[in-house]
Amino acid sequence: MSMHQPASQPSPNPGYGAAPAPAYGSAGSAPAPQKKSKGPKVLMILGGIILLLSIILGTVLTVMGVGSAAASVNDIEELPGGSGTVTAESGDMLQLYAPAGSSGVTCDVVTPDGSEPGPGTNQSSTTTFDGVEWVSFASFEATTAGEYQISCDSPQVAVGPPVSLGGIFGAIGGILLGIGGGILGFLLLLAGLIWWLVARKKA
Fold it and tell me: Compositionally biased, Low complexity: which spans (predicted)?
């Protein structure tokens, strides 16, 4: 009589340390969240700073330049009848002015000590006051402090310092700085804002 051994059955429990199979349809690990770029914020801050500084510095330079030019114009005074005296300090540069369109005007300048005044500047100045446009036609340097006697052959003559070119250029530079820097700052600010909105929409 033959006997048969029953076939070995698999163990219902997996061996120690065996990893269970993942359930069907289970998702893997979630992706790490993306870090937000600091580029838009940096661009907006930089643009805002440039815009603000350009407006402030441009305004300051313009006001200072206009003030300097206006001060030199206010120092110009008309000589009644084309003759008179003007007080100057040693080293002051003075110009003689006549209404625009005048020609052939000549003047004699007598210094406080009776000597000849020093040579003037080659700068040509044009200004307007009392509704009249005045153009420089001669210039001299005060060599000593005191009153200078001026006698001209024209009834309309004025005397004063040259118009401040530094003030004029300063005012122009301030305007250009305010406009140029303001546009640059605004564009950077706008670019940063658009970048931020696009990144936010994608997120």
Answer: 14-33
